[in-house]
Amino acid sequence: GFGATAEAFKKAAEKLAPDGDVSRAFVEHLPVNFLYRHATELFLKSGVGIFHRRFKLPFGTKPHNSEPMVRTDKGWKPFHTVHRIALLYSYWRELFATNRDFLSQNTITAWDFPLELDEWMATIDKSDPGSTFFRYPITKDKTGDVQKSGFKEATHEEIVAQIQRPDRKPLKAFIIEDENDQFMTAYYLDEESGGEIDVALRKTAGLLSAVHFAMRIELAGGF
Predict the structure, then answer these.
(1) What does the CA dihedral 216, 116, 205, 73 come to, rounded to 10 degrees?
(2) How far, in whole angstroms, is CA 116 from its chain's centroid?
(3) What DSSP line would sit under 100-112, residue for residue?
(4) Out of 123, 179, 214, 217, which residue is the most buried by the measure of CB atoms under 10 Å away?
(5) Cα 47 from chain centroid (whole Å)
(6) Could you give the 3-state DSSP secondary structure of residue 1?
(7) Angle, CA 40 vertex, CA 221 and CA 223 arms, to 5°
């Protein structure tokens, strides 16, 4: 099912980056982030499916046991056509809200989510709305594509400023000079940028894994 597959993608990401720290020098973080991102999408879809099966909620005009769908601002859409995290998360949260009374009276789980979850989801959706950003070197998001690599182009002044930072680790840079040994441009390894999306993906997948486990036990009889 969706949940089991989500768990598999999450575990694969953890095997690639067991300490949560991946090098951005040669874009090793991209496959890790893709795995976490896909796990998040599948956990949300599984949660939607569990609610519809447990409460026999129809998918629009179709019965609860038909092809699973998610309600969007453009109507009901089959799971395989919806990859936008914001759409899935919005409906997932709506299902928790509309069934709040049942959950509080009939389950022992505290279905309270940290405030950071909204921020993490927004970060993920902004970074990769179509589930393509971490899969390809070049996408329609040209500005975002530049951020994929840990190497950043810099001026002479920017390089000097980086070197002079008291908290800076040794700087790795490739400097290009002209025939008179004058500085032209440089590329330095910025290992500190991009961490926001890495953290958001890892923490979101971890939280949704726990929520999904509770949903399976409380609402799906352990299945």
Answers:
(1) 80
(2) 13
(3) HHHHHHH--S---
(4) 123
(5) 16
(6) coil
(7) 15
Which tokens hold the place of 144? 């975002």
For the stretch 122-152, pLDDT in tens is: 999 998 998 988 888 777 776 666 667 667 7
The letter for the amino acid at 64 is H
CB-based burial label for 40 (10 Å; 0-12, 13-18, 19+): buried
Residues 6+ apart with CB under 8 A from 34: 134, 135
Q: Residue for token digits 């720290």?
A: 21
Backbone angles phi, psi at 20, to 5 degrees: 75, 5
* pTM given for the model: 0.83
| Side chain identity, residue 111 | W
Alpha helices in the chain (DSSP H): 2-16, 29-54, 85-98, 100-106, 116-127, 142-146, 156-164, 195-219
**The two structure tokens encoding residue 74:** 């453009």
- Of the candidates 18, 70, 76, 74, the residue with the CA atom closest to the CA atom of residue 47: 70
